[in-house]
């Protein structure tokens, strides 16, 4: 090969992969307010900078739900599929990166062609290394495809983290449901025991003529209602256990399931009644407070937002690859090895030969296929922008809902506790008036129903408050 040819080849190799026709990537402006909608009390103490992320190990304080989360992370099938998707995306990136380098093989070839001078068949045999069609990436087509594959890998990894975040939140929600189930079951069993005693006493009084049939039937009604409520609580607890088992990918450990009476975080078996002040502290001690700042930039670290942005970058890189396809492609072919006109002399010394070829191919007419690919890639980029903005807006909405719930659920819980205290006092006074003959059986029945409903409502409100805390942790990206 002559010196000019060598210089030309060297220049081509140096320029390979140096260009790119992809648009310069710029992160779209977030279509949400710059500050999170904090209440006045929280905003006064919040930092202007985004709050530091809170790992689930720091968020979950109680050892029982922490153990359940660890089991779910190890055995959940959906999370396992998400992890395998990451491995597949990594392999696809390796395939894309391999296109930057030549593919070299080894082979033996035999050719027979007519000799135009003698009219006889001319035989040729070659054996050695061969490089077939290595593309010189002048305009960055292969480089852009590499960038797109790399962004897809990062998007898949963000998807795995999003699945992990959702799984942790689901396990915690299921555990909180079981805590509420245990407390509701305790309320139902305590109410059932009380109404069984009342029914026995009323029947004795009825048999002695000291109570009417109406009073006896009222006691039967209250007892039946308590039995129905107990069965409902048992059924709900079984369903929540099945949901948790699905999340864990296996059976739920018995020692991790809350039982009536519910153990508090310290392990005290003398659990507080649903109306005791200690119950609020027991609920609050399950999970840590979630740090919140003023800046909405914290939402950009959410895995689903990161996933949407990486998919946008992949779509942006695909535009460059589609544009480069409209220009000539330059490819090299080469071979080096032994060559002979006779097979017996193929591997003898002095028969070494090599070839090097270059080809530039440009499409003149393709019925608009390349331009259509460019247009499609631009539309794909616009779709990815809209999906990214939608992900940011959804993240802001989730966070705003959870932040609004911080104060409202706390105030509702306090109001519900006051309502329960009032219902308990009304039930006590009505029972006294009923015993003295100053209150009717209907009043007594209504007071008992109101008391039981208030006890259930307080447990449900405490549950909703803690579920909101889990939702805030998820909304901020963990």
UniProtKB/TrEMBL annotation:
Keyword flag Secreted: no
Sequence segments annotated as region (Disordered): 256-275
Alphabetically ordered keywords of this record: Lipoprotein, Membrane, Palmitate, Signal, Transmembrane, Transmembrane beta strand
Residues in the signal sequence: 1-22
GO cellular component: plasma membrane
GO molecular function: efflux transmembrane transporter activity
Composition skew (Low complexity), residue ranges: 264-275
Membrane topology: Lipid-anchor
Subcellular location: Cell membrane
Any Pfam family the entry gives: OEP
Family under the similarity heading: Belongs to the outer membrane factor (OMF) (TC 1.B.17) family.
Protein name: RND efflux system, outer membrane lipoprotein, NodT family
Organism whose genome encodes this protein: Leptothrix cholodnii (strain ATCC 51168 / LMG 8142 / SP-6)
């Amino acid at each position: 090969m002559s010196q000019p040819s060598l210089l030309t080849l060297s220049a081509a190799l140096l320029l390979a992969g140096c260009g790119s026709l992809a648009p310069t990537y710029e992160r779209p402006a977030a279509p949400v307010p710059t500050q999170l909608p904090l209440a006045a009390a929280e905003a006064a103490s919040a930092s202007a900078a985004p709050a530091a992320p809170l790992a689930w190990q720091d968020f979950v304080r109680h050892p029982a739900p922490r153990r359940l989360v660890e089991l779910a992370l190890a055995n959940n099938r959906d999370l396992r599929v998400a992890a395998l998707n990451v491995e597949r995306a990594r392999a696809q990136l390796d395939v894309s990166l391999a296109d930057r380098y030549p593919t070299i093989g080894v082979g033996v070839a035999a050719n027979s062609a007519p000799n135009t001078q003698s009219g006889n068949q001319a035989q040729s045999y070659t054996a050695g290394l061969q490089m077939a069609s290595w593309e010189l990436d002048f305009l960055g087509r292969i480089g852009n495809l590499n960038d797109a594959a790399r962004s897809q890998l990062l998007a898949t990894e963000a998807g795995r983290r999003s699945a992990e975040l959702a799984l942790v939140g689901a396990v915690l929600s299921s555990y909180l449901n079981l805590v509420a189930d245990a407390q509701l079951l305790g309320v139902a069993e305590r109410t059932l025991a009380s109404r069984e005693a009342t029914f026995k006493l009323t029947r004795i009084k009825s048999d002695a003529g000291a109570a009417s049939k109406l009073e006896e039937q009222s006691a039967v009604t209250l007892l039946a209602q308590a039995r129905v409520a107990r069965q409902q609580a048992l059924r709900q607890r079984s369903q929540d256990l099945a949901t948790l088992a699905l999340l864990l990918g296996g059976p739920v450990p018995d020692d991790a399931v809350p039982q009536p009476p519910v153990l508090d975080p310290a392990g005290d078996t003398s659990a507080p009644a649903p109306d005791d002040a200690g119950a609020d502290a027991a609920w609050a001690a399950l999970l840590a407070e979630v740090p919140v700042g003023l800046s909405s930039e914290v939402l950009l670290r959410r895995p689903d937002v990161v996933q949407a942005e990486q998919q946008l970058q992949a779509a942006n890189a695909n535009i460059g690859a589609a544009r480069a396809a409209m220009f000539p492609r330059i490819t090299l072919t080469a071979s080096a090895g032994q060559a002979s006109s006779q097979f017996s002399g193929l591997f003898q010394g002095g028969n070494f030969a090599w070839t090097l070829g270059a080809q530039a191919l440009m499409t003149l007419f393709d019925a608009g296929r390349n331009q259509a690919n460019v247009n499609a890639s631009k539309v794909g980029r616009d779709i990815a922008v809209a999906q990214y903005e939608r992900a940011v807006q959804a993240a802001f909405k989730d966070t705003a809902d959870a932040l609004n719930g911080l104060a409202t659920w706390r105030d509702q819980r306090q109001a519900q506790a006051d309502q329960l205290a009032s219902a308990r006092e009304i039930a006590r006074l009505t029972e006294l008036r009923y015993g003295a003959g100053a209150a009717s059986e209907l009043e007594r029945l209504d007071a008992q129903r109101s008391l039981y409903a208030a006890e259930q409502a307080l447990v449900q409100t405490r549950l909703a408050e803690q579920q909101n805390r889990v939702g805030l942790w998820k909304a901020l990206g963990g």
